[in-house]
Amino acid sequence: MVAPTHGLDQPANTPGAVIQRAGLNGWLRSQKRGSGLALRLAFYALIWLLLTRGDPGSWLWGLPAIAVAALFNPFEPSHRWRLSPAGLLRFSWLFLQLSVQGALDTAWRTLNPRQRLTPALVDYVWRLPPNGGRIFLANIINLMPGTLCVRITDDAMTMHTIGDSRLAVANVSRLESVIAGMLQQQVDADE
Q: Which DSSP symbol is given to 9?
């Protein structure tokens, strides 16, 4: 199914279409008011703090990056997520678990000459509804060692893996289900 377009062949639910309909100034105003700007700033600052291990010198570059990322939000301003606190805890635990598992596997494959890197491109069919949850999932797998999202389409994302691609797909499927629970969304049943 093709999404309706608005000028320049932008799908109706993309940030580009939102900018075209409201104009750049209107779009920027909608990003600032009532669209979760403060929450995005806090969330991105927390991610930066974790990634840099609290290094005070990193904030020189981090603060502008956080401000730009929060201001130019890829999610439709009118769409509000309802976060489940229990789902957020489950997501945090699974993300930590998969990140450590991926880091250890990547290190082992790199340092052990008998363990081969087996790079592969895998198409992962979305089960999340077409909204910001898909972009969130694609960005999250980029933070996990051994996986990288290289392309996003309406039906699937293509990810690069360096280990067992079947295990990577299973892990992304688990992560997608947990993200759906955190965002209080339904996922399509596995085929």
A: T
Domain boundaries, the chain: 15-71, 85-182
Strand ranges across the sheet with 147-152:
120-125, 156-161, 147-152
Encoding tokens for residue 105?
């596997």
Q: Which phi and psi (to 5°) does residue 75 adopt?
A: -95, 145
Q: Which residues contact 117 (CB under 8 A, 6 or more apart)?
A: 109, 110, 162, 163
pTM to 2 decimal places: 0.58
Which DSSP letter does residue 4 get?
P
Residue 123 or residue 113, greater confidence = 123
Element (H, E) at 92: helix 85-111
pLDDT tens digits, 34-75: 457 777 888 889 888 888 888 888 899 889 988 888 887 665
Sole residue written with tokens 């450590």: 100
Could you tell me the CA-to-CA distances from 44 to 70, 89, 114, 125 in Å, in that order? 7, 17, 39, 27
Report residue 67 as tokens: 């401000």
Q: Give pairs for 144-151: CB < 8 Å, separation 24+.
A: 144/95, 144/98, 144/99, 144/102, 145/99, 145/102, 145/103, 145/105, 145/106, 146/102, 146/105, 146/106, 147/102, 147/171, 147/172, 150/121
Residue 158 reports pLDDT greater than 90: yes
